[in-house]
Amino acid sequence: MIIGLVLGTGIVQAQAKWVPDLSRRLYVGDIFTAPSTVQLMRGGLKRGDWKMLENKIVLLEFFDTSCGSCIEAMPKLQQLREQYPDMFEVLLVGWQDRGTLEKLFSSNAYFRENKVNLPVIYADSYLKSLFPHRSVPHAVLLYRGKVQAITTSNFITEGNIQKLYKEGVIELPLKDDFGKRELSDSQKKIGVTIMGYQDGVPYQGWRFERDSLSGLIKSSLYNASIFAALKSLSAKARLQQSLYIPRMDRVVWKVKDSIRYYNFANAPYWDMANKICYERYDSIARSDSLQARTVLKDFETFFGVKVYEGLKLMQVLELKPIAIRAYIPPKGQKSMTYLGTTAFAGMTDYSEQFPPVLDRVKSEVKMEIYPYRSLEELNIQLAAYGIKAEYGMAEMEVVVVEELSERK
Q1: Is the model's pLDDT at 203 over the cut of 50?
Q2: Does pTM surpass 0.85?
Q3: Neighbours of 56 (CB within 10 A)
């Protein structure tokens, strides 16, 4: 793999070329028509006997081999399946072929450590046509022949399983990747609309575009945290000159309660209480950077908060130039290629294996780095490029989130 520019994403997008027939999709409350056959592997199930599952809650967990959140959730689902064998079944649903999925489950050490052995439906197209989605994980709960919830893995909990089994129905936040991204009336007017979390509205980052109906300039963001909104706005406004990924140790909170801004505890219902939707309509077209600054003023006015870049003294991992020393690469191992020290520093930052990386070398040399377990092992490889990494103290750029004492 070649790393040239460091970017971060939170979810994995489904197949880009796949276009769903939304007329076929099922909604919460609809009757579920099971497929006549499915291709199954793992988990002890020999065939998809849907009649045998009628009296159980069935979770269809759509996933992808490249989805870290999907993989991270599987041990929890395994535990729930073992804890409630008479009332709960998990079926992982993948669109990829059997060979690809077998390779994932057989080679992943995380699965072996957590003894993950869930039933997997592979090469699926039928279930995905009933429950279309753009991103995974995508969780569907079936019970008593009906669709009970279309949500995310965060809401598949012991309490919710017990509640659904006992009461026969449950209300959970809706994940609808094809929902309506619109808050205002059809007749758009100049002004700002800010609302809390909107059930069934897909997440959307900042967009600045001309509205086709009204001709007004529309700035919009849906179901995002305040921190994510502020961070991306400040980048658009060019208030941040660097391209570093904002690790939490590079965020300074000057607020009464940072939980309002970021879900530190990964609480399942945090989204509903804290995420926001925003729309603004303007008659004047501005550059993206100027429009972002205009929207930032709205956040100061309505939320009493601003974000800016600052400096903080902290422990760092410094990349320093040294004399080049020879290195013999190991045989039979795959390397990661970095197009310069900036790419290496950014990706190492992202892994959070070390403190934030301070690049004092600024080289465009192409680097081949093999797996390492310690800083010492890493330095043996870096020496081949005339680089050494060592701990130190330095001022680093940070993101400051500050609540205003007095609103203007």
Answers
A1: yes
A2: no
A3: 17
Rounded to whole angstroms, the Cα distance separating 96 from 124 reads 7
What's the rounded Cα separation, in Å, for the pair 133 and 147? 15
Q: Distances in Å between the alpha carbon of 152 and those of 43, 69, 115?
A: 22, 10, 22
The answer to whether the beta carbons of residues 385 and 237 sit under 8 Å apart is: no
For residues 226 and 237, is the Cβ–Cβ distance under 8 A?
no
Of the candidates 2, 4, 1, the one whose C-alpha atom is nearest the C-alpha of residue 343 is 4
Classify strands 88-93 and 57-62 as parallel, antiparallel or unpaired.
parallel
Which stretches of 169-308 are DSSP H helices?
Answer: 226-236, 270-274, 288-303
Q: How far apart are CA 116 and CA 207, in angstroms?
A: 40
Provide the 10 A C-beta neighbour count for residue 229.
22
pLDDT higher than 50, residue 6 = no
Identify the three-state secondary structure at position 252: strand
Distance, in Å, from the CA atom of 369 to the CA atom of 385, rounded to the nearest integer, reads: 10
The amino acid at residue 80 is: L
Task: Supply 312's token pair.
Answer: 């903080």
- Token pair of 139, please? 């969780």
Helix (H, G, I), strand (E, B) or coil at 150: strand
Give the H/E segment covering residue 90.
strand 88-93
Question: Helices 158-167 and 68-83: crossing angle, nearest 10°?
Answer: 50
What residue ranges define each of the domains in the chain, with the CATH number in brackets?
2-167 (3.40.30.10), 191-302 (no CATH), 311-400 (no CATH)
Q: How many CA atoms lie within 13 A of 267 on its CB side?
A: 14
Write down the H helix ranges in 108-188. 109-113, 126-130, 158-167
Task: Identify the CA nearest to 116 among candidates 151, 80, 64, 143.
Answer: 80
CA distance 328 to 379: 13
What kind and span of H or E run contains 58? Answer: strand 57-62
Report pLDDT for 268: 84
- Encode pLDDT of 221-266 as tens digits: 999 999 999 988 988 887 665 555 668 899 999 999 999 999 988 8
- Residue the block writes with tokens 């800083």: 375
For 145-158, b/e burial (b = at least 16 CB within 10 A) is: eebbbbbbbbbbee
**Cα end-to-end distance, the chain, whole Å:** 50
